[in-house]
Design a protein that fits this description.
With 269 residues, this protein is α/β, with parallel strands linked by helices. 48% of the residues lie in helices and 14% in strands. It contains 10 helices and 8 strands. The chain has an 8-stranded mixed beta sheet, with helices on both faces. Helix 5 crosses helix 10 and helix 6 packs across helix 7. The longest helix has 24 residues. The radius of gyration is 21 Å and the shape is elongated.
């Protein structure tokens, strides 16, 4: 089913892994590629049918502008957009750690929305966190129209939580990939062939994640349900639960990512 995207042109400043993944999902959901312009230093990486440029076109500002760059490229983006005629109706920013106030100081738009997607947006199973200040219903609907084809989205009420949300959901797929790799390596340590252990780990992770997502109880309850007293699952879970070691490890992990987000935000100011 096609998504009703906001009318008017869409410009992407940058089209790396994340920006490109988002744009391809939007096109798959019905966005007309002829309404899209991608501006990059190389002029490469845009999907078929999308106008690809290396400089700002001599045109009025588009309806929607997305900053799809790394936060350390904010100065280059500001310089690039300085000659733009007028201002976009909606500016979407996926610059990690760059807060709403900094965006407002550097760029002009009727409404600015911070968006933090994670990598599974490429398959429509991502998580996109959204934050804005005093947006109209129309602007909120426009932002949600872009978020919907990407998977699950949530509005974050307090921007102070955005770095933590980014650490959990934005960086989270990397941590899950690492867990899957560790699960497979643990199987190898028990004597399984490496390729077989990898297949078993991935299939187990996929099934468990789908089951948890569809369940009407929390993952903690599911874990206890499959861990019968005295059974093998319970014995293994006792290791993970000892001194809350797993929770402590992941808290340390997210804290490190949150701290780095804050450092990048400070550098962009």
């Amino acid at each position: 089913m096609s998504t009703r995207f906001p009318a008017g042109p869409l410009w992407l400043i940058g089209c790396g892994n994340m920006g490109g993944a988002m744009l391809r999902r939007w096109i798959a959901a019905g966005l007309d590629p002829s309404t899209v312009t991608v501006i990059t230093r190389s002029g490469k990486g845009a999907p078929e049918g999308v106008r690809s440029l290396t400089a700002l076109p001599d045109e009025d500002a588009p309806a929607t502008l997305m900053l799809a760059l790394k936060p350390q490229q904010i100065d280059a983006a500001q310089a690039l957009l300085a000659p733009m005629r007028g201002a976009p109706t909606l500016l979407l920013s996926i610059l990690a750690g760059v807060d709403h106030a900094t965006l407002s100081e550097r760029f002009a738009a009727d409404t600015m929305v911070r968006a933090m997607p994670n990598l599974p947006v490429a398959i429509g199973k991502g998580v996109t966190s959204l934050y804005t200040v005093a947006a109209s219903d129309e602007a909120i609907a426009a932002a949600e129209a872009f978020a919907t084809p990407l998977g699950h989205y949530e509005w974050i009420a307090d921007e102070a939580h955005f770095d933590a949300v980014t650490a959990l959901a934005g960086c989270g797929p990397g941590f899950v990939f690492r867990f899957a790799d560790a699960l497979a390596k643990a199987g190898v340590a028990l004597g399984l062939p490496a390729e077989q252990a990898a297949r078993l780990a991935m299939a187990t992770l996929e099934g468990a994640a789908i089951m948890a997502a569809d369940a009407d109880v929390s993952p903690a309850v599911l874990a206890d349900r499959v861990a019968s007293p005295g059974g093998s699952t319970r014995e293994g879970m006792n290791v993970l639960d000892r001194d809350d070691a797993l929770v402590a490890l992941l808290t340390e992990t997210l804290t490190a990512s949150e701290r780095r987000n804050a450092e990048m935000a400070a550098a962009a100011r």
